[in-house]
């Protein structure tokens, strides 16, 4: 059995936000956008109830604190998620209200990257393991930061 000071744990927290968007690339013609994105290219947009789940992994720096009994204070994590996710994204038109998406197509993949980058401003360096964004129960994106593709 590990001594109490060496016990490690994973911490996960989720938030749900509602937003609308239109999948549309400025690099493509209207016809190409319609062909690529179908009904999601509707000029009036469409909405989702997204769920973002964060995972803070097992790391030496994230041992369960023997005094507090926590890996990280959940009140702090809740505040970070409020500032990094809820304030910029909840009840917004992603393409019109979030400056980042003025030039970036608001796909779930890019939303996951946006959340990751925003959270990095609040969390201690290196502790965020992955961001999982559910656009629907069937469409889920997992982003783990910059990863290199080996060819």
From TrEMBL:
Role, per record: Involved in the biosynthesis of tetrahydrobiopterin, an essential cofactor of aromatic amino acid hydroxylases. Catalyzes the transformation of 7,8-dihydroneopterin triphosphate into 6-pyruvoyl tetrahydropterin.
Alphabetical UniProt keywords: Lyase, Metal-binding, Tetrahydrobiopterin biosynthesis, Zinc
Organism, scientific name: Smithornis capensis
Domain of life per record: Eukaryota
Cofactor(s) needed for function: Zn(2+)
CDD domains named among the record's database cross-references: PTPS (cd00470)
Gene that this polypeptide is encoded by: Pts
Record's signal peptide: none
InterPro entries: 6-PTP_synth/QueD, 6-PTP_synth/QueD_sf, PTPS_Cys_AS, PTPS_His_AS
Name of the protein in question: 6-pyruvoyl tetrahydrobiopterin synthase
Gene Ontology BP annotations: tetrahydrobiopterin biosynthetic process
Pathway(s) it belongs to: Cofactor biosynthesis; tetrahydrobiopterin biosynthesis; tetrahydrobiopterin from 7,8-dihydroneopterin triphosphate: step 1/3
Record Gene3D superfamilies: 6-pyruvoyl tetrahydropterin synthase/QueD (3.30.479.10)
EC numbers on record: 4.2.3.12
